[in-house]
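Objective 1b of the project was to move from sequence-level analysis to a structural picture of ligand recognition. The entry below was assembled by the postdoctoral researcher (A.K.) and checked by the PI before modelling. It contains the amino acid sequence of the target and the SMILES of the bound compound, pyridoxal-5'-phosphate.
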Amino acid sequence: MPLETTKNIWHNGRLMPWEQAQIHVMSHVIHYGSSVFEGLRCYARPEGPGIFRLSEHMQRLLDSAKIYRMPIRYNVEELCSAVVDLVEANGVAPCYIRPIAFRGYGEMGVNPLRAPVEVYIANFPWGKYVPGNDGADVCVSSWNRLAPNTMPSLAKAGANYMNSQLIRMEAEINGYSEGIALDVNGYLSEGSGENLFVVRGGILYTTPLANSVLNGITRNSVITIARSLDIPVVEQALPREMLYICDEAFFSGTAVEVTHLRSVDKMLVGDGKMGPVTSAIHDEFFGIVNGLKPDRYSWLTPVKVPAAEPVGVS
Ligand SMILES: Cc1ncc(COP(=O)(O)O)c(C=O)c1O
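Corresponding predicted holo structure:
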């Protein structure tokens, strides 16, 4: 996806011009992958744009940093204000927001403890994504997700995405739109950048945090919506073949939102169409984020930016 620039980037408490937000090639992060980051969406709504689950994303950023002993000088409220200030200063909505904290310049060697920590936040235009109703054709990856005692999957760390890149490249080269990885014990884990749900017999299953998944904020939103719709939700280890015999399957994530799977390993999921449980959750999710249904969980933080696009139903 080509990057569209905006005017400002937030760095350690102040806005700077986009072009000046640069780091030295000898920064620790470049050599040792020492970054943690977030990805959020700001949605266009009839009443004005809103950032989806801002405080939960900022809390996850701080959690990721804590796991890696990376001190961040800002608390959740300060980070949330920084995001709102940036989005309003840039005047771009809908948009994607990318906060990142990393070990910067001044120390060489693996040990990051004495390297400075830098915090940046960028945002850039990202129009309304229309996944359509055709669904995704995916495969099970030959790459496993990270073993739990190697790279912690609850940290959204830049380095984890080397594993994601292997999964994603393999899928694309083999003609699939995404890969689903198993964990090191052979149970279903997640996609390269999405959580996984399957439906069988009216029950919604998803892989638990112990199967090397990111604690997805969209995943949590899907579970909340499903429970409000009286759909039973079960978090349990799932064997690969559940993907072949389930009635419905879908991904959740900030980028894919709620996207149903048409086929896995060239086997149709159900009849390949979006099934009733997925449709109910999909419609509720898009209704809330697009401002067409009440924001009954207070998931959206308003920002004062004129919405650039009319809002419709996905
Ligand atoms: C590996 C991985 N799993 C799951 C997700 C979904 O998380 P969220 O819903 O918080 O975007 C993402 C996206 O951030 C991801 O990169």
